[in-house]
Write a structure and sequence with these properties.
single chain, alpha+beta, nine-stranded mixed β-sheet, three-stranded antiparallel β-sheet, about 25% helix, disordered N terminus
Length: about 260
């Protein structure tokens, strides 16, 4: 097993911090302002202080300097001085930016449900063991990924993605159970709102899943991906709806870092 010399020890040894991931193309990212807002908001929740936007932008620019290809960029906020024996102590958060090739997005997802909810679901934090364990179990069972259901039977989110559904009348339905407010889903909502399309945010019970005509997974690195199955429920892959959601997402121009 090899070491990762560029990753601070506090990230490897202490599971406390938060992050955001974005797709950067030609130095621009859709929803960049939202990503920066997320980092600042979550820093207040996790560390009790905000982040300087200029420092975050500078760190991203340094990480992508000289790279012209599309990149998956992850901005992680951690605190080298954080001591789990004294978690109440004030600490100074720092930013680490890592880059990788964007993921290869395959065909429609086949997912299974699991009873699970992330800790502090409104924060994109680094406590990912539970969700990756659930994804592992799902994939070993022959599925592509996992969709979480709360103890009250409400659909919340996927392992690393938000979920939305298309109703029979064409309304996009977004579950309101506690979940991470995804950047990609927010951009889709904004784009649809500009066209006057019907969007409804409401509780979605697992028992309702057979009543929808289509389902989609969304995140910043794969903005619109159809879901073909949830457990035994099969959805028709609606190419027109997929294209409509993609256009809504892409109607927000990329912002320069």
């Amino acid at each position: 097993m090899s070491a990762l010399p560029d990753i601070p020890a506090s990230l490897a040894l202490v599971n406390y911090g938060h992050f955001t991931s974005m797709l950067l193309t030609a130095g621009r990212a859709r929803g960049l302002a939202r990503h920066l807002e997320r980092l600042n908001r979550d820093a207040w929740i996790v560390f009790g202080q905000g982040l300087d936007e200029g420092i975050v932008r500078q760190a991203i620019r340094a990480a992508v300097d000289g790279k012209t290809e599309p990149l998956a960029v992850r901005v992680t906020v951690h605190a080298p001085g954080f001591d789990p024996r004294k978690p109440e102590a004030d600490v100074e958060p720092e930013v680490v930016v890592t880059t990788s090739a964007p993921p290869q997005v395959g065909g429609p997802l086949k997912v299974r449900t699991a009873g699970y909810q992330r800790d502090l679901p409104q924060v994109k934090h680094v406590g990912t063991f539970g969700l990756f364990y659930q994804r592992r179990l799902a994939r070993r069972a022959g599925f592509d990924d996992v969709l979480f259901i709360g103890g009250d039977g409400q659909v919340s989110e996927g392992s690393t993605w938000n979920v939305c559904f298309l109703d029979e009348d064409g309304t996009l339905v977004i579950p309101t159970a506690p979940a991470l407010p995804g950047i990609a889903l927010g951009l889709i909502q904004s784009g649809l709102a500009r066209t006057g399309a019907q969007v409804q945010a409401r509780p979605v019970q697992a028992s309702e899943l057979p009543s929808f005509r289509a389902a989609f997974a969304t995140n910043a690195l794969a903005p619109v991906r159809p879901i073909s199955h949830v457990d035994e429920v099969e959805y028709k892959v609606d190419e027109d709806a997929t294209a409509r959601l993609t256009r809504a997402y892409e109607s927000t121009a990329g912002e320069r870092v």
